[in-house]
Design brief:
single chain; alpha/beta; Rossmann fold; 2 domains; 3-stranded parallel β-sheet; 40% helix; binds guanine
């Protein structure tokens, strides 16, 4: 029988721990403040931003909200980031992605002070992660590590295969598994003999962005399968990159969609806000 890794429960547990920590910090006269910037009205971004603000409120982190119009220029956005970099009462700055096409995302992410980059997207933080120095870590892959650890799944010495090489998930995921002493392979769209490689995995992390891409053919018996994907199918139902019904009976543990990795991203963002850059 396989274990369903309950991301909703684990993320709630982390948020409750952070809430307690913040109450203690407040009693000592400390506070935290996250600035959240959204440009335009992408409906998915609005949902994410609202959830981030709600989580701040639950934990006791102050939040500042900037809802800027679609026509905001790159210069205006950069000026706001600079202003927030200079404010001593702001600890974290988050610019919700995607940005409108006329604004260069790389330029904006580079402008955020690495000390306030709670998303862990700044090249300084990405570099620190890769050489084992303290810094902010990208929230979704950090959440996957917490799911594994809090489910009693050992990483050290395990064959870990990461399917996907994005800057936000695949690459930092590989670095984090390596930091936990896993043996790590990264696969991507040009990988040859993909199934042969994924079938070696004790821990398979799937972040390919294709609904139902991984079925039982990709998975070794008793593997742990972590699904980072989130999509809406033709019937309007949420699903992941993993075909859950096909894979689960073969796996020892598996994350559902929804309720697996998804809720962990915000929990780890909150952890970054409370704890600072590691
Ligand atoms: N858009 C989708 N996911 C994320 C995220 O984790 N952080 C930011 N800033 N934007 C996103």
């Amino acid at each position: 029988m396989y274990q369903i890794i309950d991301g909703k429960r684990i993320s709630q547990q982390i948020k409750d721990e952070l809430r307690e920590q913040m109450a203690q910090r407040k009693a000592e006269g400390e506070s935290r403040c996250l600035a959240v910037i959204q440009v335009g009205n992408d409906p998915a971004s609005t949902v994410y931003v609202n959830n981030k603000k709600k989580a701040c409120e639950y934990i006791g982190i102050d939040s500042l909200s900037y809802e800027l119009p679609e026509e905001t220029t790159e210069e205006e956005l950069l000026a706001l980031v600079e202003e927030l970099n200079g404010r001593s009462d702001v600890n974290g700055i988050l610019v919700q992605l995607p940005l409108p096409g006329h604004i260069c995302e790389d330029k904006v992410l580079l402008a955020i002070s690495p000390e306030k980059d709670v998303d862990g997207f700044h090249p300084m933080n990405v570099g620190n992660l890769s050489i084992g120095r303290p810094g902010y870590v990208s929230c979704t892959p950090a959440g996957v590590i917490q799911l594994l650890k809090r489910s009693g799944i050992q990483i050290e010495g395990k064959e870990c295969v990461v399917l996907g090489r994005s800057n936000i998930v695949g690459k930092p995921m590989a670095m984090l598994l390596l930091r936990e002493n896993g043996t790590v392979t990264v696969c991507h769209s040009r990988t040859k003999n993909l199934k042969e490689i994924t079938r070696r995995a004790d821990i398979l992390v799937v972040a390919v962005g294709k609904p139902g891409f991984v079925d039982a053919d990709y998975v070794k018996e008793n593997a742990v399968v972590i699904d980072v994907g989130i999509h809406r199918n033709e019937a309007g139902k949420l699903c992941g990159d993993v075909d859950f019904d096909s894979v689960a009976p073969l796996a020892s543990a598996v994350t559902p969609v929804p309720g697996g990795v998804g809720p962990m991203t915000i929990a780890m963002l909150m952890s970054n806000c409370v704890n600072g850059p590691g």
